Amino acid sequence: MAKNAEPKSKAPAAKTPARKAPSRARARPTPSSPPPIYQHKPAGASFFELSRLMVVGIDSAKGQLIQKAQLSPNGPWPSAWSFIAPGAWVIMTAGLTRDGRVAVVAQPSGTTNLSFITEDANQIGPVEKWTAPMSIGTPPGATSYQKLSMARDADGRIEVFVTDNQGRIWWIYQNPDQIVQVQKTITPPGTTTPIVVTVEVPAPPAKPWSDWIQIPGGLVTVSAIRQGDGRIALFGINSNLHLYRCQQAKARALKAADWTGWVQIDTTQTGGFIEMAPVIGPLGATNLFALTQSGQVLHTRQMPAGSDTWTQWATPGYSRASNLALAAGIQGDGDIVLVAADQHFLQFNAQWDAYTQNWSGWRDFGASLRSTRLTLNYNADGRLALFSLARMPDGTNGLWTINQMGIDSSEWEYNWTSLTDNNLKQIVVVRDLTPPV
């Protein structure tokens, strides 16, 4: 009889790290072990040697599902975009499979069914190949979608979260492996007589994906992140700009009851929020940075890591002008870097010490001449890359990128690399651990 395979190990309980002795020097000591975020990368993947950045997007003119990736780790970008799947597409999200391949969930034009696509696991040669779109169905009653988000769980399985046209929150996940009994013939040590034994072995699930499950609540947008202990946390904003959080109550969540309840985390003093940027910090705790209606960046984090206890709101630095966009990322040493944009300037704010929550303060490093959406991700050498999806006069979006000059550097490249001057509708930046060779 088949049964679900249990995780190889329970989600580790988060431990509060010992406090480092304070240093009078501003330079921070090099971490003695990889930051927690790197300890959960797909098994067998060599991050610094293999990874490259990839932009997955939808173009505005024809609705095509497209991608553009670095030609090599830390390398240049090609001039042309490549197709992922034929046809027109409405909305999408992207992430990674258990073995580090890029995965995409998207809505084809003309249907509410969502499709799942991955890089082909058997591709050989330098040309990117993708699997054929596989339908994962439609949440009951959904006629359109406001936001899609994807994260890997404690088992490495992909979980997808959706807010539909009614603000309902839906969840679907790759089913866990099942355990099946098989008979094997062995010859016990010290004998010459074979015997037949029954053993339990993992096997693919009979049904690849779960049914769509509704998570109670109502949101306009939702963001999922895999936490340091493997459990997924969700953050969401509703139509009244209230901000909420919840997380999986167990490492293997299979039903709505396996989630904690939603906790409203905005206050009368913070007011409503317009953007959120969750990230895992160097101490293994989930950090949430969020942009208020007044354009200030506020910060709250788990304390201790892995718990459902969070700090009160704090400011990593006051902005004299109202920010309109926000991104949070980690650089190669695991430290957090923020980038924000107001009507005139781009600013960054680097975390100097996670124990004391010491920050560099906001520093201008570029001009922001258009309405933009920002994304941060790191290169194979650990330097951050900033992507700016900027609104153009024709109503479409162009995309540009620059890199940090080095890990922990306050310098950024002066010249932006254009990935396209217009005609983009939406993008997600992912780090491909299995590029074609």
Helix/strand layout:
Elements: E1 3-4, H1 47-50, E2 52-59, E3 65-69, E4 82-85, E5 89-96, E6 102-108, E7 114-118, E8 134-137, E9 145-152, E10 158-164, E11 168-173, E12 178-186, E13 195-203, E14 213-218, E15 221-226, E16 232-237, E17 243-247, E18 263-264, E19 273-280, E20 286-292, E21 297-301, E22 325-330, E23 336-341, E24 345-353, E25 358-359, E26 363-367, E27 372-378, E28 384-391, E29 397-403, E30 417-432
Antiparallel strand pairs: 1-12, 2-3, 2-30, 3-4, 5-6, 6-7, 7-8, 9-10, 10-11, 11-14, 12-13, 15-16, 16-17, 17-18, 19-20, 20-21, 22-23, 23-24, 24-25, 24-26, 27-28, 28-29, 29-30
Could you please describe the fold and organization of this structure?
- The chain is mostly beta strands and 437 residues long.
- The protein has one domain (35-174, 209-432): Neuraminidase (6 Propeller), CATH 2.120.10.10.
- It is 1% helix and 44% strand.
- The chain is built from 1 helix and 30 strands.
- The chain has one helix spanning 47-50, and strands spanning 3-4, 52-59, 65-69, 82-85, 89-96, 102-108, 114-118, 134-137, 145-152, 158-164, 168-173, 178-186, 195-203, 213-218, 221-226, 232-237, 243-247, 263-264, 273-280, 286-292, 297-301, 325-330, 336-341, 345-353, 358-359, 363-367, 372-378, 384-391, 397-403, 417-432.
- The strands form 7 sheets. A 7-stranded antiparallel beta sheet has the order 4-3-2-30-29-28-27, with no helix packed on it. Strands 22, 23, 24, 25 and 26 form a 5-stranded antiparallel beta sheet that branches. A 4-stranded antiparallel beta sheet has the order 5-6-7-8, with no helix packed on it.
- The longest helix has 4 residues, at 47-50.
- The protein is globular.
- The model is unreliable at 6-47 (pLDDT under 50).
